[in-house]
Amino acid sequence: MSLPSDLPPELAHGGVRAADRLGFTLFLAALLHLALILGLGFSFAEPKQISKTLEITLATFKSETQPKKADFLAQDNQQGSGTLDKKAIPKTTEVAPFQDNSVKKVVPPPSVKPEPREVAPKAAVATTAPKPKKTVTQREEVKKEPTPKAATPTFDSSQLSSEISSLEAELANEQQLYAKRPRIHRLSAASTMRDKGAWYKDEWRKKVERIGNLNYPEEARRKQIYGNLRLMVSINRDGSLYEVLVLESSGQPLLDQAAQRIVRLAAPFAPFTGDLSDIDRLEIIRTWRFARGDKLSSN
Fold first, then answer.
1. pLDDT of 142-171, one tens digit each?
2. What is the C-alpha to C-alpha distance for residues 39 and 20, in angstroms, rounded to an integer?
3. Euclidean distance between the first and final Cα of the chain, in Å?
């Protein structure tokens, strides 16, 4: 559609001008602000009633009736009293051991004055000191006795020679007696293969255990008696048995006697050779065990 050609120039221009848009925008903004100002309102809210609080204390005595208006909270009812206009917390925290609503005047008992004691007057005693007598002291002269001189010892060469000879003879006799003593070597269960005679002890153990298991005590097998004992076996140089001693008993005489019998059955033993050739007697101490299963062992 085209505009007529005879329109004035201000109307001939088509569209909305910028000034019109600005004016319309300002008008709308004014309307919105006016609506907000007139539509919103402010009011003050009334505060709610504040609840009253009470402090907590301890009552010093107990009242039968409950007070109408309490100033504090406590474990018992207590009627207020006193001379103060305002409430005050009791000054003591101790509870009274008795209850009484009336105040009574307490009069302390009169104190008894101690009776004065009569002191007897001291009697004056007059004494007269005897006059000192002058005595003439005589000096006693002490006579010094001469000290005896120490006598010089005299030596007799023949007597000394006889005493020395006697001592030499006594020493030689002691050496001979010591040389006649048997050389005894003891082997215990703590011995190892490096000990002197350890190999002999091991061979001896094997033989004794073999003989012992072959001759296990029949009564101990039948009655099922078991136990341990400690035995010392002393062997001569030629392998013969010297003695058998029970060092620690098993508590069963049957087992103690059986162990000694087994050692005697196993004797004689091998003679001493090698590193035991210079030993006259060998003592072997071992623990013997008669265990369940009717088995004998020693260590």
1. 556 666 666 565 656 777 777 787 777 777
2. 29
3. 137
List the chain domain ranges.
184-298
The whole-angstrom separation of Cα 20 and Cα 283 is 140
At 25, list the tokens: 């925008």
- For residue 207, pLDDT beyond 70: yes
For a pLDDT cut of 70, what percent of the chain falls above it?
A: 54
User: Residue 274 gets which letter from DSSP?
Assistant: G
Q: Are 78 and 62 in contact (CB under 8 A)?
A: yes
d(CA 122, CA 68): 78
Q: What is residue 191's predicted lDDT score, i.e. its pLDDT?
A: 47
Tokens representing 293 are 């299963």
| pTM for the whole structure | 0.40
Q: How far is CA 159 from CA 31, 152, 168, 202, 218, in A?
A: 161, 17, 14, 60, 74
Burial class of 191 by CB neighbour count within 10 A (0 to 12, 13 to 18, 19+): middle
* Amino acid sitting at position 250: S
Place of tokens 């011995």: 191
pLDDT in tens, 25-68: 998 898 888 888 887 666 666 666 655 555 666 666 677 777 77
Quickly list H helices, 181-248.
198-214, 218-223
Q: What is the pLDDT of residue 230?
A: 96
Which amino acid, residue 212? G
Return the H-helix or E-strand segment holding 164: helix 157-180
- C-beta separation of 197 from 185 below 8 A: yes
CB crowding 21-48: b at 16 or more within 10 Å, else e: eeeeeeeeeeeeeeeeeeeeeeeeeeee
Look up residue 31 and give its amino acid: L
Q: What is the mean pLDDT of the chain?
A: 75
Return the CATH class of domain 184-298: alpha beta
Adjacent-strand bridge partners of 146: none
